[in-house]
Amino acid sequence: MRADYEYRFGRDGAIHCNAEEGWKPTATMSLDGVQRTSSLGPSRPCERDFLRVMAAVLAADRLSPRRPPKGTRPQRDLAWQRSLSLEIAVECPERWTAVTPLLTQLLSFMTDDAWKLRFKGIAASPVQQQLLGLERVEKIDEVALFSGGLDSVAGLFARSKRDGRSVLAVSACGNEVRGGAQKAALEMLRSVGAVATWLKLDHQLRGVERPRSLMEPSQRSRGLLFLAMGATTAYQLQLPSFSIYETGVGCINLPISSAQVGAQATRAMHPRTLLLFNELTARVLDGQVRVEAPFFLHTKGELCSLAGAALGGLARVSMSCDEGEGHKPDTMLHCGLCTSCVFRRIALHAGGLHPDPTRYRDVATRQHGVYEVNSFESHALRLRECRDFEGLLDLDPDARFAATLPLIEPPKAAARIEVFAMYQRYADEIQAYLAAARPTVRERVREHRKVGNRALFPAVG
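Below the sequence we write its predicted structure tokens.
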């Protein structure tokens, strides 16, 4: 049976899609560490292949819409699952062929899709040298992924300012607006005493002829490319691990309503994703590099509270909105009503930031409105009804992996208790925020279509 989407990824980043008229060029992917060296210096074949494969997966994910071009949101939900077939050119095909079952399992869990992967061997070739101006420091204590979001900003502050660590912040940058926002966030962190060096890795999908409306917005595999960037950076620096600063609530990401099924609630940093990723990394790199989550037993509000008096400044330079920064006159304007914005507002309130300095639009759209706010309220009530860890499994059976992944020090039995207690504190944070600062949602003002002046009885000649 033919897959819904079928792609070939060449050694130079060229992407071909199998269409009705045959194989045709579709786009080109460009990625630091593959076509170009990063500031850390030349990469090894196993590192280039790791980035190459994860970038190919993300490109296929983006190019493969889940719904027909004119489909409705319900149609998209019904057509959520896809089947994708990829042939990827790599320098070590035997290694990747051996881990294909593991990678397929990981992708299926993250995206809910059926993946068929093949790897084609290519000769090694030197990548183009470039200098990105990475500032050298005497010692790097920790490599950490840095998105510029609230978790990464507050987490870096806590690890550096409070714990005295020198952090290499690794950012994936797909456009100049995003890169500018990440740079501003790093500058703010340094101004309040954090010791941080920035490594920006550019990734682009170029030459796509189709409009943005025909690209898949969910992109559930995006986290894999970011994780691969962290792993290869730590590997080049001969460090045994790298960090993500997501909290346990964000990692596990229990669905906030029964309407969310499977990967419709993102699993980018889910405990099972990280567990499978650590296993994959151990097999495709020539040494063990694991991902760690030092704030796994924190709520987002508790992480924010670690920033203390610096929280207001850090909030102003961090972006959490699902809309992103692009295509906005004010890049730091948040919609205020998407799940990420509401999650942010709850955390900043719990972190003691009153009032919240973030600029929120709070206008209902087709995507977001009162529904999300009410869903968080219902979510808190459902969490309150849970009596133990088993109650969380009724909300999402995959939460069981939170007690098996070695992200936290307690043994399995204690981990279940700790995770349950974390969610009870989180329920308190939701209810306290809604009681004190529930958003006021404004209806969108519809603009009337411009109509030209027309005579009731036009003259006839």
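The longest strand covers residues 195-206.
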